[in-house]
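To whoever is on call:

I kicked off a structure prediction for a single chain this morning and the downstream step that reads the tokens threw a length-mismatch warning. I double-checked the sequence; it's 98 residues and nothing unusual in it as far as I can see. Pasting both halves so you can look.
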Amino acid sequence: MEAFAERGRVELEATGEHARKRTVETRDELTPQEAQISRLAADGATNQEIAAQLFISPSTVDYHLRKVFRKLGVKSRTQLARHLLQPGTRHEPAARGN
């Protein structure tokens, strides 16, 4: 399993990006993809529309939205939109580690 993680890290760094560090403190913060998907969903896009825009499958969108709902403690897209509009809420991705 660690070999796959290392391979992914090397491939990601080849693109100029870095994997973010995962800690207990950051486990409930949204990943960049979760943040992007949650903003699109809050703006009213359907899973199919989000999938087409991001070149992923609708089931992948559903997977990420389920994780977002759990992390943010919301149960609907309406609640998601309200949550994202609240001042001071942390819905941006965590800072990437080196």
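Update from on-call: the warning came from a stale cache, not from the record. Cleared it. Sanity check on the structure: Residues 58-72 form the longest helix (15 residues).
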